[in-house]
Design goal:
This protein is mainly alpha-helical. It has 3 helices and no strands.
Length: about 100
């Protein structure tokens, strides 16, 4: 991977088809991972773990938890992605293209 940073100029953010920059997508994905971990631990704590369930049920539960975390993050989540982006913009780090 090669990075090129020119002094004195910051490139415009690269925008994907959904209208989000790479930084916004990365921050949202990061928040989804954090939410997924939190939700998975909450599920284990409150629902318990049953070894007697049908085969593959834990995989479906994990997939459902990840989908819920991604959906929550896409709609604002806990605001972690917004804070990451705000800090990133204040530090004036150039967008990697």
């Amino acid at each position: 991977m090669s990075l090129s940073i020119t002094s004195g100029s910051v490139s415009t953010p690269v925008v994907n088809s959904a209208g989000k920059s790479k930084a916004e997508k990365a921050a949202q994905d990061f928040e989804a991972v954090l939410l997924g971990s939190l939700l998975e631990n909450l599920q284990k704590t409150f629902a318990g773990t049953s070894e007697e369930g049908p085969a593959g049920s834990s995989s479906y539960a994990r997939m459902g938890t990840q989908a819920l975390a991604a959906a929550m993050s896409a709609h604002g989540g806990l605001g972690i992605a917004r804070l990451i982006l705000q800090q990133w913009r204040q530090s004036k780090v150039p967008e990697v293209t």
